[in-house]
From TrEMBL:
Listed SUPFAM superfamilies: P-loop containing nucleoside triphosphate hydrolases
Protein name stated in the entry: AAA family ATPase
Any Gene Ontology biological process: iron ion transport
Keywords, ordered alphabetically: ATP-binding, Cell membrane, Ion transport, Iron, Iron transport, Membrane, Nucleotide-binding, Transport
Keyword Oxidoreductase: no
SMART domains: AAA
Pfam families named in the record: ABC_tran
Alphabetical list of CDD domains matching this protein: ABC_ATPase
GO MF annotation terms: ATP binding
Length: 258
């Protein structure tokens, strides 16, 4: 375990977001007991808010390498982060904060670098020294990801990225990483997470995915009126999905005819 405790001190007289989430009224301390912690809850419950605030507290980098200190979109996260105290067994700067929107932007930027380098090489003489920076760009991307990202779907590129970027003794904060993945590829991601955990990595994951929630011995936490441990079979999303899959036509019929 790298990060083992999160403490929260509410600010005085703060009643607006990000300090008006219901679970904050009773939340003061959270002990992380497993290498994988799963945050569950409805949309708007504050899963991403908490995850971003943890990241902002210790200035985690984004998957792209950018800092959370940049950009006004993290102002609320930084405000909540100032009210958190993190306790570490071993403090690491390895790892990153992942958000689905950032992933799409990162893949587009990486593909843009590849296409730009390829375009420049087409206009330079084969033995020109000016080719070196562009060749280095292509070699760097290929060495890191071992595949041609320019030819992969978002889901395939996502898995290639995680295969290349998950390392030992690193803390990864993942916000709905299932977004670009089919259920089968979510299982592949689960296997990659497990491989990293066995080498000392730690994950805190905000997700709606029943597959990711099923990680063995994960610490499952539900955010709602409280922030509290929950069993897999008690998660509202799981029970609803089971009911739907048992008789999908019944749900659809009532939805369209009521």
């Amino acid at each position: 375990m790298l990060l083992n405790k999160i403490q929260y001190t509410p600010p005085l007289q703060a009643t607006s977001y990000p300090f008006n989430l219901p679970w904050q009224a009773h939340f003061r301390e959270l002990k992380l007991t497993q290498s994988v912690t799963i945050l569950t809850g409805d949309n708007g419950s504050g899963k991403s808010t908490l995850l971003n605030a943890i990241a902002a507290n210790y200035n985690a980098i984004l998957m792209s390498g950018a800092s959370l200190e940049d950009g006004p979109e993290y102002d609320n996260s930084r405000a909540l982060a100032r009210q958190l105290k993190l306790t570490w067994t071993y403090r690491t700067k390895s790892g990153f904060l992942f958000r689905a929107d950032d992933f799409i932007s990162f893949i587009r930027a990486t593909r843009g670098r590849i296409k730009y380098a390829q375009a420049q090489l087409e206009h330079l003489a084969p033995k020109s020294l000016e080719r070196l920076p562009y060749l280095n760009t292509l070699a760097e991307v290929h060495h890191l990801y071992k595949v041609d990202l320019d030819t992969l779907s978002h889901g395939q590129a996502f898995l290639a990225l995680f295969r290349a970027r998950l390392h030992a003794n690193a803390l990864y904060l993942l916000d709905e990483p299932e977004s670009p993945l089919t259920p089968e590829n979510q299982l592949s991601l689960l296997a990659l997470i497990h491989e990293a955990v066995t080498s000392g990595a730690q994950f805190i994951i905000s997700t709606h995915s029943p597959i990711l929630m099923a990680y063995p011995d994960a610490q499952l936490l539900a955010l709602g009126n409280t922030l509290a441990p929950i069993q897999y079979d008690q998660i509202e999303h799981i029970t609803f999905l089971r009911s739907f899959l048992d008789d999908p036509q019944r749900f659809v019929y009532h939805l369209l005819h009521d």
